[in-house]
Write a structure and sequence with these properties.
about 210 residues, alpha/beta, Conserved hypothetical protein from pyrococcus furiosus pfu- 392566-001, ParB domain, 9 helices, 5 strands, about 10% strand, elongated
Length: about 210
């Protein structure tokens, strides 16, 4: 197995028939625009095709290959790994799915820096978030950590429509009326936890055990 990068003609790159990874049309469009704008992309991982001589089977980078073809590229940067069918299957099942998650504070800093040089609508064409999500995230203030709380506080960020927001706000207001926490964020967090706890208590015992 080698990690040296080589240029291979795109018409010599064959998609693996069992590739399980799928990308939405919107996300694929953003991938295309990023490559078109920068000319940069991660090399495609391939192996010598087991049946077609002088061809290569894609292990990781199917969408990158499609994007390059759409943009008119004739060749792609590739890393060729000499692996058997079993190893190829393992990599297909893991390479596209093994990923971490964003740390909210750092993600917000990145989006805010980018948002200074381009409008949310333009930025949304390049990153996974929509324009509305970018606007909400860049206006989001990270709550300060209460001095008396021990342990790491986990941020929860999700998006709801107007009707859902109204319902949630009413529930939080009702559940948080008797809370003694000092900050609004702490009161809302405690109220949400209280609502969730009451919901769990109402579940049948068998359902609680299974979850």
């Amino acid at each position: 197995m080698t990690n040296s990068v080589r240029s291979i003609a795109i018409d010599k790159l064959i998609a693996h028939p069992d590739n399980p990874n799928r990308m939405s049309t919107a996300t694929f469009g953003k991938l295309v625009r990023n490559i078109e704008r920068t000319g940069r992309y991660e090399p495609i991982v391939v192996r010598p095709h087991p049946l077609r001589r002088n061809h290569f089977q894609i292990i990781n980078g199917h969408h990158r290959c499609q994007a390059l073809a759409k943009l008119g590229y004739k060749a792609a940067d590739c890393v060729v790994w000499d692996i058997d069918d079993e190893e190829a299957d393992i990599l297909l099942a893991t390479l596209n799915r093994l990923c971490g998650s964003d740390e909210l504070g750092r993600k917000l800093n990145l989006l805010k820096r980018l948002n200074k040089s381009m409008e949310s609508r333009e930025l949304a064409r390049l990153v996974p978030q929509t324009a509305k999500q970018i606007e909400r995230l860049t206006n989001l203030k990270m709550p300060s950590r209460p001095a008396e709380v021990k342990g790491f506080l986990n941020p929860l960020v999700f998006f709801v429509n107007d009707a859902q927001q109204e319902t949630i706000e009413k529930a939080l207001l009702s559940a948080g009326e008797l809370r003694s926490e000092k900050t609004r964020a702490a009161k809302r967090a405690a109220a949400l936890a209280s609502i969730a706890g009451e919901f769990i208590e109402r579940l049948p015992q068998s359902t609680r055990r299974n979850n």
